[in-house]
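Q: Structure tokens for this one, please.
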Amino acid sequence: MWRAAVLLLFVAGAVTVRIIELESHRAVLITISRVSLLVYLLCRIMTVVLAFAALRHSPAEVYQRPNWTAYWGHIGS
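A: Here is the predicted structure, written as tokens:
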């Protein structure tokens, strides 16, 4: 899902940039620009949600304090 969302982010961004470069047929371009912006925002939200959802599947060792923090007191406990 994240790969599709990132691909759509790229496509929506490229379409938006291309629309900005074109200045003819303003009514059609405004509609396409709004749809492109909506797709971009939805894909951006999806990538953030998927990044946080991936934390649910992390192993428990990720949340334990590493051993090297005992060497520097201001980093450890």
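A few notes: The chain has one domain: 2-55. Residues 8 and 47 are 11 Å apart (CA to CA).
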